């Protein structure tokens, strides 16, 4: 379950990064549609946080420790909302660039999460 | 960029491209800070030097983040110094981790020139210093100055 969500969040985060990178290249700020996209990615990340905690209470022990796992889950859930907030403050192409960075960071966090959880079994 | 804003006013160091730089520094403050906090509490005995260094890195990142957000000339200078410290740190630790692996049994943000963090710790101080230099009062671009 969490494995499928990790793949989904990674793909969505990279798509968002590419989309906002395109806006940056065209010298555009983030628009309403971008924020809907950010909301969708954030919902996925929040779902992952919930599912992760549920699986923890179900008795699974992450390879690299529960504390690290929960910290990464929380960081993943916060990444896009924080980037979105910055892009609201910065209504230029650099706001879009910040969301692109947020998407890439979220994707990297997913790779680390997969590793912390224990690779294939999950 | 210059074409779209012909009468570009003096920008604050935390705005425009600076906003992206602030965001990245904030991320690295959290990343290095939480990492070192966890390591110092949970496994200090394993690699004290590496973990203390992570904490130092976190403090440097935090200083730069705050300086960029607050803005102003003295904050700009402080941020400049911190970026230089950061660059020196990542170069020194990066070289040390390659030359003497035994000193660093565990990774820090600056190990192997920040390889585990997509080399951002190496690129960020350079970008930061270029940006801060551009934002210096004497060199502030009014209209017409060529942009890189």
Give the helices and strands, then pairings.
The complex is a heterodimer of chains A (122) and B (148).
Chain A: H1 2-25, H2 32-57, H3 66-89, H4 93-117
Helix pairs in contact in A: 1-2, 1-4, 2-3, 3-4
Chain B: H1 17-43, H2 48-70, H3 73-99, H4 120-134
Helix pairs in contact in B: 1-2, 1-4, 2-3, 3-4
In short:
Chain A is mainly α and 122 residues long.
What does this molecule look like?
The complex is a heterodimer of chains A (122) and B (148). By secondary structure, chain A is an all-alpha fold. Chain A contains four helices and no strands. In chain A, helix 1 (2-25) runs antiparallel to helix 4 and helix 3 packs antiparallel against helix 4 (93-117). Chain B has one domain. Helices cover 62% and strands 0% of the residues of chain B. The longest helix of chain B has 27 residues, at 17-43. The termini of chain B are close together. Mean pLDDT of chain B is 84; it is low at 1-9. At the A-B interface, helix 3 and helix 4 of A face helix 1 of B.
Average pLDDT taken over every residue of chain A = 94
List the uncertain runs of chain B. 1-9
Order of helices and strands of chain A: HHHH
Helical region count of chain A?
4
Helical proportion of chain A, percent range: over 70%
Strand content of chain B: under 5%
Number of helices, where a helix is a run of at least 4 consecutive DSSP H or I residues of chain B: 4
- Secondary-structure content class of chain A: mainly alpha
Low-confidence regions of chain A: none
Oligomer: heterodimer
């Amino acid at each position: 379950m969490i494995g499928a969500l990790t793949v989904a969040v990674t793909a969505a985060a990279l798509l968002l990064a590419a989309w906002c990178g395109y806006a940056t290249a065209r010298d555009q700020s983030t628009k309403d549609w971008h924020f809907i996209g950010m909301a969708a990615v954030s919902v996925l990340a929040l779902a992952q946080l919930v599912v992760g905690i549920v699986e923890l209470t179900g008795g699974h022990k992450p390879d690299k420790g529960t504390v690290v796992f929960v910290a990464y889950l929380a960081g993943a859930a916060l990444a896009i909302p924080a980037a979105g907030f910055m892009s609201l403050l910065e209504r230029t192409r650099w706001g879009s660039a910040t969301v692109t960075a947020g998407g890439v960071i979220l994707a990297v966090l997913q790779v680390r999460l997969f590793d912390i959880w224990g690779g294939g079994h999950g | 960029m210059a074409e779209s804003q012909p009468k570009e006013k003096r920008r604050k160091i935390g705005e425009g491209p600076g906003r992206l730089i602030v965001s990245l520094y904030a991320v690295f403050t959290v990343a290095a800070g939480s990492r070192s906090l966890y390591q110092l509490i949970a496994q200090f005995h394993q690699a004290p030097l590496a973990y203390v260094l992570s904490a130092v890195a976190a403090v440097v990142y935090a200083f730069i983040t705050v300086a960029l957000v607050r803005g102003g000339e003295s904050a700009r200078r402080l941020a400049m110094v911190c970026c230089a410290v950061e660059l020196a740190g990542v170069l020194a630790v990066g070289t040390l981790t390659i030359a003497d692996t035994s000193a660093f049994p565990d990774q820090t943000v600056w190990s192997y020139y920040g390889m585990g963090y997509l080399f951002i710790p190496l690129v960020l101080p350079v970008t930061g210093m270029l940006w801060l230099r551009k934002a210096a009062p004497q060199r502030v671009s009014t209209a017409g100055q060529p942009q890189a």
